[in-house]
Amino acid sequence: QVQLVESGGGLVQAGGSLRLSCAASGLTLSRYTMAWFRQAPGKEREIVAAINWSGGTYNEEASRFTISRDNSKNTAYLQMNSLKPEDTAVYYCAAGPGMARSSMAYNFWGQGTQVTVAS
Asked: Residue 86 phi/psi, 5° resolution?
């Protein structure tokens, strides 16, 4: 059974930082593209960043966020700096066979972790 478990969310002041983690079990992370999506209230789920098996990345917030992975720990990360109130959302990690912006391309999803940025 595949499980993705996010952690690291919480409440932070604007300008602060958070590091999200996504621990995978039941699959070999190194064989998958890992991605972070977010969904704010009343908005569609959108991709934040993705990283493929070889370390190639796609990043919508490259000036502030960094996606990484540690295949030995079967874990992916999203380091978020200079957070803004508009970053407030539920953040989800996902695993899929290839790099894609669409959520439909990802087969496995975590339950999400809330990130709230106070102004």
From this structure: -70, -5
